[in-house]
Amino acid sequence: MALLEISNLVVEFSTSSGPFRAVDGISLTVDTRQVLAIVGESGSGKSVAMMAVMGLLPFNAKVTADKMLFEGRNILALTPAQRREIVGKDIAMIFQEPVASLNPCFTVGFQIEEVLRVHMGMNRRQRRARAVELLQLVGIAEPERRLSAFPHQMSGGQCQRVMIAIGVACNPKLLIADEPTTALDVTIQKQILDLLMRLQQEHGMALIMITHNMGVVAETADRVIVQYKGRKMEEADVLSLFESPRSNYTKALLSALPDNATGDRLPTIASYLGPDGTFTEAV
Questions:
Q1: What is the mean pLDDT of residues 181-188?
Q2: Which intervals hold domain ABC transporter (predicted)?
Q3: For residue 41, which of 280, 248, 228 has the smallest C-alpha distance?
């Protein structure tokens, strides 16, 4: 049985100009210990699909699916209280923009300990000890002192490590990492990716990596889903995707990588569009 199984996920937002479909019939499965990358340009619905799984979309979003199962349980049929028992504990998410995702009014220690209080029922002494352990785990120096720091007193890379500490605090079965290296310099990006992969292997988590970076996909993923305008254009194991892409959109993404340049200018995605001006094929 798959850890997470989604069939025909649709997300529509009500807007002043009418309904907008951000996710259009996405299906996917994630197995225990598997690393699945979801790749596509900004606006392709990657984050929205995963926010739907987490139940974190705004009130104007309508979410439907033929199936959305976590360990065989229908997520969409759960009450808010039942869903809160899963989200943050068994399914955790690392959000984009770590500095913005952390609450500036509370210390790093408080925000880590809050997860442990809600989901693990630890007392104050246990929470503090676990928070120190988590900061050590993600490679933050002087963890006891850092517990009293506020997010603005830490670098972007340190805040991302704190977000990862919060994400793995309850040893989740599935961790969703949404653009975990955005806005970080190249050296820090490498450190964060290495950390995520080490934690994934050590804790036996399934990992969904949301990214637009094909290099990240090549380094981390077992399987890859390529999205475009809310639709799944292709799904394959990572080696097959890079060696024999089937979708024109995937070919366009790969051709736009600087390493694949064949002339003075990179090819544009438009050069791969069909006669009607769209990528018509989808799986």
A1: 79
A2: 4-254
A3: 228
For residues 110 and 260, give the distance between their C-alpha atoms in angstroms, rounded to a whole number: 47
Q: Which residues contact 110 (CB under 8 A, 6 or more apart)?
A: none
Count other Cβ atoms within 10 Å, centred on residue 57: 16
Are the C-beta atoms of 205 and 199 separated by less than 8 Å? yes
User: Contact at 8 Å (CB) between 107 and 154?
Assistant: no
Q: State whether the Cα torsion 132-220-151-57 is positive or negative.
A: negative
3-state helix, strand, coil in the chain (%, to 5): 40, 25, 35
- Banded model confidence at residue 274, pLDDT cuts 50, 70, 90: low
Q: Specify the pTM.
A: 0.90
Report d(CA 7, CA 69) in Å as an integer. 9
Q: How far apart are CA 245 and CA 73, in angstroms?
A: 34
Strand partners, 97: none
119-139, pLDDT tens digit by residue? 999 999 999 999 999 999 999
- For range 225-237, the mean pLDDT: 93
Quickly list H helices, 41-155. 46-54, 80-86, 98-101, 108-120, 124-137, 143-146
Q: How many residues does the chain have?
A: 283
For residue 11, give the nearest of 58, 62, 59, 75 by alpha carbon: 62
Reported as type and span, the H/E element at residue 61 is strand 61-64
Amino acid at 246: R
Q: Comparing C-alpha atoms, which of 29, 24, 30 is closest to residue 10? A: 24
Interval 55-61 mean pLDDT: 93
Kindly state the tokens that stand for 170: 């309850």
Residue 239 CA: distances (Å) to CA of 119, 120, 224, 235, 242:
38, 39, 10, 11, 5
Provide the token pair at 266: 């990179």
